[in-house]
Structures are given as C-alpha cells and as structure tokens.
Amino acid sequence: AGMRNALSFALLLIFCCGADALFTKVKQNHPKCFIEELHKDEVVIVHYSSPDQSPLPHEVEQQKYHVGVKLEVSQGATKVFEGRTDVEGRFAFTALQGEHHLCFSVEGQSLGQDFRIHLEVKVGLSDVDYEKVAKKEHLSSLELQVRKLKDDVKRVTSEQSYFRNREERSKRTADSTYFRSMWFSLCQILAMLGVTGAYLFYLRSYFIAKKLV
C-alpha cells in the first residue's frame, strides 16, 4: 500500500508539472493558437525556438522593423501576456482561471514566408527562487528539500481540488441537461397527445355535423 501511495504521489507530481511539446508553422495573417486549460495562479513557462527568423534586436526602436513571431496569451477578453520572440528563448506568466489561448502571429512584412515554431509548455512549476529563500532564511540542504516538498504537496492538493470542482460542475451540467431533455420529451408527448385529441374531436364534430354517425 505504501509503494502504491508513493507511486500515485509521483504520478501526480509529474502530471502537475507536466510539459507539452508542440510544433507549428506560422504565416503572415494566419495566426496559430493553442488552448490550455489552467487555473488561477499557476505558473506557466513557455520554452520556444524560431529558427527561421533573424535575432530580435535589443533596441526597442529597431524591433518595430523586425520580421518575426509574436506570442499573445489571453483568457477570455483579458490579455495575460504579450511578447516578441527571438530565435530561441522562454516566456513565463501566471495564469488566470479557465481556458487560455496561446496565439502566435507574424509581425512585419514576411512576404509569405513560413516561420517554424518549436515550443514546450510547462505548467504548474514554482516561481520561487529556492536559493534566495535558503540564503535569506538560513536553511540547510535538508530543510530546503522539505520546503520544496511542502510546496509540491500544496500544488498537488490545489490541482486535485481544481479537478474535483471541475468534475462536480460537469456532473451538475450533465444532470441539468438530462432533466431538461426529459422535460422536453415529456412536453413533446403532451403536445402530440393534445394535437391528436383536438384532431379526433374535430373529426367527431365533423361526422356528427354531416350526420355520418
């Protein structure tokens, strides 16, 4: 049982701090978007490489004329992050709650050129600099490992709570859909019975009026 619990905990840590490796091509006026389901305060790190563009200039004024790829991250109508990519690098942002759209688009006049994008999205990582924490609080190596483990447990617990809430919402939605479908079917049956009754009443009245019965 102990081994099984340890394995389950390890799998949860891997899932919580999992990474998605992606590849796509971006062309001017044809942005590419990926959707990632995140919950509030998760730290997301995007490692990328864009080998088909020239290096991004350091001067802001020169960046206006640079032809390359831009990343925009949004959650609903809220823009979470925006930045120009270099040949290789990384972005980091803190998530809100819900579906996030990670969209790549071409900035500048590319004359129809395709830009390859390789990226790895890591979710659930900590943004805590543990080396600074250890120096500030004078923690030993063992105490620092315990601190990291406690933070990992908090993240796993938060992840479990998030998925439990999602499961409960999905169950409520499914139950609500089922009852609405049931009532709709019942209303259809009652409507058909009503139409049939009215039609039979009309036929009976017609036959009586014509003295056919």
Describe this structure in words.
It is found in: Membrane. β4 (68-75) and β5 form a beta hairpin. The chain has a 4-stranded antiparallel β-sheet, with no helix packed on it. A 4-stranded antiparallel β-sheet has the order 2-7-4-5, with no helix packed on it. Mean pLDDT is 78; it is low at 1-17. Helices cover 45% and strands 31% of the residues. By secondary structure, the protein is an alpha+beta fold. The protein is built from 4 helices and 8 strands.
CATH architecture of one domain: Sandwich
Give me the Rg, rounded. Answer: 29 Å
Helicity, as a percent range: 40-55%
Number of strands: 8
Which class of secondary structure composition applies to the elements? alpha+beta
Keywords: Coiled coil, Membrane, Signal, Transmembrane, Transmembrane helix
Family: Belongs to the EMP24/GP25L family.
Organism: Hemiselmis andersenii
Subcellular location: Membrane
In short:
The chain is an alpha+beta fold and 213 residues long. It has helices spanning 2-16, 60-63, 130-137, 141-209, and strands at residues 19-26, 32-38, 43-49, 68-75, 78-84, 88-94, 98-107, 115-125. The N and C termini lie far apart (82 Å).
Name its key features.
four-stranded antiparallel β-sheet, 213 residues, 8 strands, alpha+beta
